[in-house]
Amino acid sequence: MVQVEQGLRYSRTHEWARIEGDVATVGVTDYAQSELGDITYLELPQPGTQVKQGEPMGVIESVKAASDIYSPVSGEVIEANQGVVDAPEKVNQSPYGEAWLVKIRLSDPSEVENLMDATAYEQFLAEEAAAR
Amino acid sequence: MTELKRTPLAERHQQLGARMIEFAGWYMPVQYKGIIVEHQTVRTIAGLFDLGHMGQVEVGGPDALEFLQYVSPNDVARLRPGEAQYSMLLYPNGGVVDDILIYNRPAGDGYFVVVNAANTEKDVAWLNEQRTQRSDLKVDVIDVSDRTGMLAIQGPQAEAILQRLTRADLSEVEYFHAIETDVAGVPAMVARTGYTGEDGFELYFPIEHAVALWDRLLEAGTPDGMLPIGLGARDTLRLEACLPLYGNELSAEITPLEAGLSWVVKFDKGDFIGREALLRQRSEGIPRKLVGFKMVERGGVPRSHCEVQVDGKTVGFVTSGTSSPTLRENIGLALVAREYAGVGRPLDIVIRGRPVRAEQVKTPFYKRAR
């Protein structure tokens, strides 16, 4: 079963954000990694980059497909996880843990309300599955 | 959405937890456990493939040989009973209708042609059209795809695993040869052929036995670590071995000479469809060449249709690309203007709008130790 972690906020494009103060740690969900399959390549925004909620900020590629990574929040990238860029398979192994992607300093904390909580995201996944 | 065609094994794939996709109008498994682990399992142990989507055509009658000589560029006369030959169907302009495998049946009772899933209807229509054109020939063309089951077992342990289910001595079946025998009590044509770059077999049998044969093969190979393999790994395996895929390396717009498959074209065997056009292309100079490359700069995975540049100028396009599980590098094949081809020479692959540096390398990317 696909894991959804409590306490995180989720986007409809399958990114998660852990909000701590005015910083969001961001990654892709377990559902996203399982849909993509073996991840082999990541492109992340460099620290200092301004990102906007809902807009592409990076690229994730598996053996079979390439996909954009959308920023779940707006703000400035303050850290990118070089460890996961060097070992992209970690996204498959630990999407909510070791394989976080970037940390973003929020420019508009109220935007977090646009994201789903774990219960809503589980519901969203169930609806997506039913629609297929 | 139109209803997808299903092989008899669709339910088995779901039970095995496969991720199912649409492929050429079929509902097929793209992966079970993961492309990389499946790929590595075929390279090191063995894998089992459902190939029920592939098409099969029987070509018989007193003039079957003459007909096949006319519609395909390889020399079918060299094919003795129990032998297989890689060939193609060509258009008069030298473009490719499909790439095919022709078996001269072990019993010598006609030819059996295996075609790509996406092209089955087109090929059968094409063959029937040629049959009408050549009313001087007595030949039967019968699409037997609906009643023919097809499985493959591929990998270094394939022979040992398959041997447990048949009395025939598989060590005596040479590469690109086939025998008729029983496998797990099912009458089958067993051929030492495949599409992975590994040793292995392809099995053809009455379709009603597909589930039973799959189950027995899986049961026989599981203790060795054999896995079922989806289309995802089938593609990475064939690409590492540089086996062409119709629609990528071959198409109506690409000739076999451009695709580096001139060995398939036997100009001296007599007339065949496409011969004149290919002779002309050969004498005028083949304008494009299929080359292998690996990415030497970070920038992503090359994919089919990516533009290829040299010094900012478009010189061709990527036909297939992937992240190679064996090499752990990003690799691909590209069709480029001939003057830019050459091992060691650079190419830029345009990935998401950015030229990313690649270097041409010798092909195939992977060759098994024999």
Describe this structure in words.
Chain A: Keywords: Lipoyl. Chain A: One of its GO terms (cellular component) is glycine cleavage complex. Chain A: Its cofactor is (R)-lipoate. Chain A: This is Glycine cleavage system H protein. Chain A: It comes from Thermalbibacter longus. Chain B: One of its GO terms (cellular component) is glycine cleavage complex. Chain A is of the alpha+beta class. Chain A has a single domain, classed as RNA polymerase II/Efflux pump adaptor protein, barrel-sandwich hybrid domain (OB fold (Dihydrolipoamide Acetyltransferase, E2P), Beta Barrel). Helices cover 23% and strands 33% of the residues of chain A. Chain A has four helices and nine strands; from the N terminus they run βββαβββββααβα. In chain A, a hairpin with a 3-residue loop joins strand 6 and strand 7. The longest helix of chain A is centred in the last third of the chain and has 14 residues. Chain B is α+β, with helices and mostly antiparallel strands and 370 residues long. Chain B contains eight helices and 19 strands. Chain B has a six-stranded mixed beta sheet. A six-stranded antiparallel β-barrel of chain B has the order 14-17-16-15-18-19. A five-stranded antiparallel beta sheet of chain B has the order 5-6-7-4-8, with helices on one face. The longest helix of chain B has 14 residues. Chain B is globular and about 60 Å long. Chains A and B meet through strand 4 and strand 6 of A and helix 7 of B.
Mind sketching the topology for me?
The complex is a heterodimer of chains A (132) and B (370).
Chain A: E1 9-10, E2 15-20, E3 23-28, H1 30-36, E4 39-43, E5 50-51, E6 56-62, E7 66-70, E8 75-80, H2 82-86, H3 90-93, E9 102-106, H4 118-131
Antiparallel strand pairs in A: 1-2, 2-3, 3-9, 4-6, 5-8, 6-7, 8-9
Chain B: H1 10-15, E1 19-23, E2 26-31, H2 35-44, E3 47-50, E4 55-60, H3 64-71, E5 83-90, E6 96-104, E7 111-115, H4 120-133, E8 140-143, E9 148-154, H5 158-163, E10 178-183, E11 186-191, E12 200-206, H6 210-221, E13 227-228, H7 231-240, H8 275-284, E14 288-295, E15 307-310, E16 313-324, E17 329-337, E18 346-351, E19 354-361
Parallel strand pairs in B: 3-13
Antiparallel strand pairs in B: 1-2, 3-9, 4-7, 4-8, 5-6, 6-7, 9-12, 10-11, 11-12, 14-17, 14-19, 15-16, 15-18, 16-17, 18-19
Helix pairs in contact in B: 2-7
